[in-house]
Each structure stands twice: as C-alpha cells, then as structure tokens.
Amino acid sequence: MKVDTMRMIDTKVGVLLCFLISPFVYIVDVLRGGRRAKPDTRRVLFIELSEMGSAVIADPAMRKLKQEGPSDIYFVIFKSNVKSLKILNTVPAENIFVMDAANLFTLFKDVLRFMSWCWSKKITTVIDLELFSRFTAMLGFFSGARHRIGFASFHDEGLHRFNVINQPVRYNSHVHIAVNFISLINKALGHFTNPYATQVVTREDIKLVQAEVPAHTLTPVQEKIKGLYPDWKGEAILLFNANASDLLPQRRWQQENFAAVARALLTTFDNVLIVATGAPSEKEYVQKVVDMVGHKRCVNSAGTFLFEELVPLYTLSTFMLTNDSGPAHFASVTPLKVFVLFGPETPALYGSLGNSEPFYLGLPCSPCVSAANHRKTTCVTRPCITGISPVWVETRLRQYLTEQGIQ
Predict the structure, then answer these.
(1) Number of domains into which the chain is organized
(2) What is the pTM of this model?
C-alpha cells in the first residue's frame, strides 16, 4: 500500500476503531491492573513499522532496556524496513516479526499471525515507538501485553488514541526523537509515574554503538568499486545520496545541485571518486545526476551494493552528502562524516546520532511537517531545501577534504 493510503486509513478508520474499542480496553485494563502496576519488562515488544531510520535511532533505547531491565526484547516492523534492524543486530532474528503491508489482505493476514506470535512469546509489555498511529496502538492491545507504553498528547489538540495506550508518555515535539524514545524506556523502568517524562536524558543515553566491520567484508565492496571504476587505485570515496524516501519527497535537493557540487569537487581534487548511491529502484533517478556531472570519476552504484554491504562501504569512504533520509542514520553507526541536507524537517528533532553535520536554512516556516500533521505538507516550491546553495555546500565539502589532506 502507498504511504498516503495507510495514513488515510489510520486517520479515518483508526480513530473510529480506537473509540469503539476503548470501553472494552478500559474494562480489560481494570481487571488486569494494567494502568496501576509498574510495567513488567521481562519480555518487551517494540513497535516501529514504517521508518528505517527510526529503527536505528531507537537502538540506544533498546540497549538501555536490555541493560537495566534486564529484558528480552522483540520487534515488529514492515517487511520493506526489516533490514535496518540487522545493522546492529540488537534484536535477535528469531525475535523479529515481519509484517507485509503490500495490500489490505496481506496486512490483515499478518495481523492475525502477529497476535498468535505475541501470545506464544507471552509478551508482557509493548513500547510503541510510532507517533500517534492508531494502528500500532491497536496492535499493542491485541498483542495481549498487560502494559502498553506509547506517546500521548494530553492537553494538546488532536492526535487521539483514546485509552488504548494504558501507560502514556507525553510526546515532546521540542526535543530529539531519540530523547523521546529513551523517555518511553524510563517509563517502562518506573523512573517516573506520571505522563510527563521528568527523568533526565543525557547525551550518553542516546549515544549509538559502532557497528562491527570485519576485514573480510571490505573486500567484496572494494571489488565492486573497482567494477564501477576500473581505474580506481585507492582514491578517496565520496558518497552522494541524491534520492529520498517516498514518505516525504519534499526532502529531495535538486538533482542539478548534486551534480554542480560533484563537478566542482572533481575539478578541484584529482584524488577523489564520487560514488552516487541508491536502491535498485532509484537507478534511473541517480543516473540523471551522474549524466549531469559527465565525469569518469563519478559513477552510478544504485542497486550495486547489498544492504549488508552499506556499513563496509561507509567504513571505506571519506564522507557522504545526503538528503535527510535513511542512509544518514545507517551511516551513524560508523565514523563516517555525513553532511545532511535538511528541508521540511529539522536536525534538532531528527538529526543523525553519528558524525553528522546539517545544511539547514531554518526558515520561519520550518519544520512544516510533524506528528501533528502526519508529516504532510502542501508546499510545492520547497524554499527550505531548494534555497540551499550548491556554492555553500561545495565550499564546506572542499574545506573538509582539505582538512583531511585530500588532494
């Protein structure tokens, strides 16, 4: 299903369903003591279906729960995003439930399988990482878990999930999403009892661990780079990720801007190779950028590298220039310097937790997408992203390469 279709169903149908089941949910919670007792964190299910980047950002929260619980952790995620959990392997493969959202039939079938799976695992607590999704709130209830922790709006307008979440935490739209995720864990651990996250969250709390990159995983990546550019003799690899998820296409910086920056760097530096990255479905889009560059040291690698090869690729590279999208978060588990182009969202809330630096205009209208509007915007001119000057970006990248001793 398309993202807009899922959002529409969640808003139009989900609100009604949450309202209708709320009396039944309340009675069940009263009988089971789900609202009063401290959450049982022996077997905790995390729900994050639709965002690959968020699955990485949530990793410090999951590790905190495993260490302080201690807890066995489980995860449910859409099939199209499950690979993101394999970057750090915090959740054992056998504890991941994959849901197929290709259409309503497959989704309904998997909901039934999910319920059976949760009951067999005897899930004690659910932590819903989604921002006000009615679908995930109902999944939490049907999991059979006694305690269901998730975001709530309280005195804020809209975003109702009624009482389907029985251990609510007020979502704070003014702090990074990683801090909000940690607050859900602090609620599960009993560090505060009211809906307001009064427990301090430190920078250490949201620090990502680094991925292990065995030496043997680098060789096939190097061979593929050699296949793309047979003359490669160890030139510094500069990654350009010109595409962005269909969840929010307004995040895309213009193709001609990526090309302009690439041409300028290739003119200045003889010892660099620009590798334009992307998924197999993005090959044509990426090729347009490469064609605009028109230089032999700029190659199209869309569809070339397996997802499992991205971390080794990042380890071999000097920097990445990317739209605000999944790769910025995937690279955060490596030392790679990542320059992220932000438009309708803000690095203050969704910035990478790794070695990243944003290009962000911070217009008065920014950010224009949030949980409150289901990350939808009608802005078509997109001055927040189109207004980022290629000269600004190229100047900073050139400075960084010079600092690294690249010629």
Answers:
(1) 2
(2) 0.93
